[in-house]
Amino acid sequence: MFNAIALFASSRRHGNTGKFVDRIATNLKFEVVDLSEVRMSAYDYEHRNRNDDFEPLMKRVLEFDQLVFATPVYWYAVAPAMKVFLDRISDFLELPDLLNEGRRLRGKRAYVVCTSIYEEPPASFMNAFRDTFNYLGIRFGGVAHANCRDGYVNARHDNDADSFARQVASAGRE
Predict the structure, then answer these.
(1) Is this structure's pTM higher than 0.90?
(2) In the CATH scheme, what architecture does the domain 4-172 have?
């Protein structure tokens, strides 16, 4: 079984990236959490934001073995809500009462699902994820990318999503 959760960030829930990750999620039967619906403030060095929804969400995320990060490529970077989520992981590395929880990220497997107007996701975009995963001890499982220069084309992009889901499912059986 693919024990996973997806964290989705985009300005359009049912845009290109939303359609792409939803197709993958349907195949692999995992939940997609829309970060725009989560009350989550930006990282704060003083940690004055502990009463928002980030900590409960992160504790829930930690219950899964596989994490899917879904975002379009915006100016060679992730969507703003995804950036906030990634930044806030620092809370689980800095706050003494969350440190043991944060260590549970080690050994998890993460995937990136993204769309852009390019044939491949930009290296700067992917390096941000790879470097973050490496720092946290998360294994990078792969990327599903769709070139949506002409929008989401069901015949092509659904096939790509299905193919990625099959690869992930077979890797999970190894």
Answers:
(1) yes
(2) 3-Layer(aba) Sandwich (3.40)
